[in-house]
Amino acid sequence: MADMPDMADKGLLRFLTCGSVDDGKSTLIGRLLSDTHLIHDDQMLALEDDSKRFGTVKGGIDFALLVDGLEAEREQGITIDVAYRYFQTEKRGFIVADTPGHEQYTRNMVTGASTASLAVILVDARKGILTQTRRHTFIAHLLGIRHVLLCVNKMDLVGYAENTFRDIETGYLQFTDNLDFESVTAVPVSALNGDNVTGKSAQMPWFNGKCVLDFLETVQVDAGKNRTGARLPVQWVCRPDGDFRGFAGTVAGAALKPGDAVRIEPDGAATRIESIETEGEKLTQAVPGQAVMVTLTDNVDVARGDVIRHADSAMQTADQVQAHVVWMSENPMIPGRQYHLKLATAAARASITDLKHTININTLEHVAAKTLELNDVAVCNLSFDRRVAFDAYQDCPETGAFILIDRETNETVGAGMIDFALRRALNLTKQKLSLDKNVRADALGQKPAVLWFTGLSGAGKSTVANIVDQKLHLAGRHTYMLDGDNVRHGLNRDLGFTDADRVENIRRIAEVGKLFVDAGMIVLVSAISPFRSDRDMARDLLQPGEFFEIHVDASLATCEARDPKGLYARARKGEIANFTGISSPYEPPAAPELRIDADTTDPEAAADLVLALLARD
Question: Do the Cβ atoms of 227 and 194 come closer than 8 Å?
Fold first, then answer.
């Protein structure tokens, strides 16, 4: 390989390749590396050997194998993971993210697009523009990419026909006309044969544009997507002794210097940067993307998840936002369900409170929807359990992007880009009250708590809870019972039994339970509450030691044999939809404070077990 100039004298272009499966993304990158003589001899020998074992090119070199590193990818001939490759020519350096084409791996494409400035989108000339082509284009636009190179690949398989290329080019330009890309350029290529990849093709004399490499070397893109001052999301607070207090994180937005006036969000405390260092070396400035440790001139309160930002570059802080969300899970989104939110270094609990609309990838129309399925893109309102600091994604991706994580499985289920804070969130503050929970509890002479009875219909939850309620009353305790059926006759009478309605049902009951605890009461909740994450949400509303999950555990056979309301018989006949245990799942508690074997324990004895639990506490 020829020696290259020092990268300090060059620009660096980050781009991604995407499109539908088997459109030739990895082959194009492999051909670029090969034709620019950026493959070492030992790599070429390994590639020749891999081509014989895994290649899809009969009797030739399969350049895609240079990028498809996973064994599963090589065996299947597809890209699954995001493969990053660095290479450079005499004019420019490149970091390319080769992303998967299969629909189920759209989340990987989102990862690759998040740091790119340009998207190279491939289309098979035989197939034309597909739904996945449009999906990748729209997500690239959503993630702030403003330059697109459309490579109409496999032109050799359509006889290098100009009309085929022009038809695809016209259709794609019509699709992107409503998206605010700064440039959309189309080029006809054969990645397999190298036509219009690193040099003009003799097979297509009718094409007068640049080849792929010439375009990549000369395209002018913005240096970055950030439109803000410096941001330092705090990842770690370093206090090795009483004399040093530093804050570690990765700089975003703009350069940060000692002496800069800054504020600590979300609370807004003002101070200045005293020093910046990395790996023990003092710095005169820290640039975006650099991991550093800073110290401050004042002893202000700073914790992990806070953001140190330039004082003259305001951030938004709120507990409710509007955002674009890409759903990444095969399990549908349930409005109101709580997920873990990761936003920069901050963590919170979040729920989608209003699904405003999904976006039809083919037409870009807004479509009404009640839930999100895998790969859906939507505009949503989200609510957090606390105020967080953020920027609009278009201003600073590092502090405007978030992921949603399932609280039970730890699966990343969604990726989001914040649009703005909701105005109603900015107008509300909590009113401080003179009488708090402790004062009210002392007046009642008891410790407030929620006893949450969960189990299948017919397990005996309400029976046991009712006995416990009576015994606590006779003992002079102040109680109230929230029975699931009774609540549905009033507060929750507007809710059905879909998963989303079940989540909202439990959310309302939990909030009412919290109010009773604030009043110093002992509240008994009897509700099937089939989803573990929703019971965890109820627990999270209270302080440690205030929530007791009691699993009244009766087998399905026992519950059906009892069937006091005749519900199981009707569910078996199909007369009741979404019935827990029959046509809707029940997730038993993982670690309840008390499990009652309701198959063998009579209600009186079960109630005594609950009272013993309270006495131990």
Answer: no
